[in-house]
Amino acid sequence: MFLNHGSFGACPAPVFEAYQRFQRELERQPVEFLALERRLPELLDAARERLAAYVGASPANLAFTTNASSALNAVARSLDLGPGDEVLLGDAEYGGMQILWAYVAERTGATLVHRPFAELAPGPRTRVVFCSHVEWTSGRVNDVAALCRLAREAGALSIVDGAHAPGQIDLDLEALGADVYTGNCHKWLCNLRPSAFLYARPEVQDMIEPLVISWDFHAPSFPERHRWQGTINPCAYLTTPAAIDFQAKHDWPTVRRRCHDLLAAAELGLEPLTDDYVQMRGFRLEHPDPPELKRRLYEEHRIEVPVFESAQGWVLRVSVQGYNDEADLEALRVALAAEL
Ligand SMILES: Cc1ncc(COP(=O)(O)O)c(C=O)c1O
Description:
- This protein has helices at residues 13-28, 30-34, 40-55, 68-76, 95-108, 144-154, 173-176, 202-205, 222-225, 235-238, 240-249, 252-265, 290-299, 326-339; strands at residues 62-65, 86-90, 111-115, 126-132, 157-162, 180-184, 196-200, 271-272, 280-284, 307-310, 313-319.
- The chain is of the alpha/beta class and 340 residues long.
- It folds into two domains: 13-245, 3-Layer(aba) Sandwich (Aspartate Aminotransferase, domain 2), CATH 3.40.640.10; 251-339, Aspartate Aminotransferase, domain 1 (Alpha-Beta Complex), CATH 3.90.1150.10.
- Helix 4 runs parallel beside helix 5 (95-108).
- The chain is globular, with a radius of gyration of 20 Å.
- The two termini are 19 Å apart.
- 46% of the residues are buried.
């Protein structure tokens, strides 16, 4: 039973086949495929334009990145912060990004201020507001548009971590109002790994240095400056349209609703961390040895479900994707009843 799409999930067969077609083409003549003066820019532009339309962004404001972490690293490490500056963050931010912000604070002398999402209120010293659109612990969908407005009024830069958003919630990035937004396409959009994007409003694009400085560093446009990060396999970027097409063809709003309803109906005997979720929901876990419980769920009950420690304590997080059904959640219910 696989209930951890939120970490890494399977991609649909037609998307994988599109990936293999690109991969074969690449290997047939790698220079023709990868060189900046040959096919790559055109291929990337076509994929980026489809992605931009899907997330409601101008293509000029969107760049492919390998993952949300690299997008946020590029942004956070470009900021000109100093002592006295405050970075305001949610209290349920992804662990890797908390480490990133701690690093930035240590290097610059800026202060980190953690608050629950509902209490995030930028003040006179706030230079940056950072929050998740969908929290990795609880699955809660935050009203980031309202917070981005507050940040703008306070003269602070808003950075939204939408790692779990594309595919799980409909996006209209130009309307949302974040200065900077990142989303993973390799999570809920069901594209191959690695594929993600960095969105930035035109006013802040020049401030963001590419994570890797190389051939495209002096390019005139934002997407181009972040394009060549050394040699990578770009095939997953190129299958983004196939993933979008797959979800459109299979009436994804209905799939999402079915997943949500399955999760809502699951009687796991645990206290949920939120009621505002879509396909992923975290539950508070009271157990003397959570890592042992996780091991037993996987090794004895054959259930892949994450158990981790967060600022909210120990959490068991359940993800429901199109390939899941009642039997998966029933298996989890039975296993938890036996173990708890
Ligand atoms: C909220 C959040 N932000 C960022 C990330 C990092 O994503 P990636 O590993 O694709 O960079 C994750 C990963 O699960 C996440 O949950």
